[in-house]
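Is OS5 placement plausible here? Inputs below.
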Amino acid sequence: MTIAIMGAMREEIEPILENVGEYQTHEYAGNVFYTCSYAEHNLVIAYSKIGKVFSAITATVMIERFGAQKLLFSGVAGGISDELAIGDLIMATQLCQHDVDITAFGHPDGFIPEGTLMAPTDDEMRSLAGEIAIDMGVELYEGIIATGDQFVASLERKNWIAKTFNADALEMEGASVACVCQNFGIPCFVLRAISDTANGGAVEDFDAFLKTSAQVSARFVLEMVKRIED
Ligand code: OS5
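Reply from A.M.:
I modeled the complex. Tokens:
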């Protein structure tokens, strides 16, 4: 099976590339795509650059040009839920775009006509992740992840996102990737390890924990790939 693994930042895919052995590189549409064989699968790996637009381009190319049949996102997130500490893992049950606002026309926050408020993730991959978490002895949270083109570093914005979308974590790419997968009919899995808690100290925490949290997420996603069957 051809499986896509993507992150937004170089730091999010580096620990994946360090563990897959030899790979080939392909430049296309402003990204570098890395292909290799791993655990009896063909992998295509890339980081998109930050935000919803770049991540949607990358996910689309992975599906349309590289033939990805499943897509796994690995990276870091700002924690919202009080249960989530830095380094903890959360997989998205569904994802929304917290910065979409056409409420002037009477639509709810985050809703685009002919779209869905929430983009789903794949039930099978989430249940596989639950089994892997038990086997690895790691705690894996699940919940709603809110995406927007903003690095959130304010309690006020974080609390608004929590209340409006019942979100447990936030980031800048997951919902656009899940929306691409939803529209192409490709199973999607979004995993994030917490790098900060999206408050006044978020920039400092992000800088301090990006690498270690990205490694936590990457390690888990590689276990997922090993356990995915054709
Ligand atoms: O990809 C962006 C979203 N990520 C998840 C995340 C997050 N999202 C929103 N709010 C939060 N509180 C979040 N915490 C974790 C992380 C990432 C955030 S944007 C970070 C940008 C940092 C940066 N800017 N310039 N550089 C790094 C240097 C640079 C130089 C050359 C090439 C690339 C980067």
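Short version: Residues 8-9, 50, 76-78, 151-153, 170-173, 195-196, 198, 202, 206 surround OS5 (CB under 6 Å).
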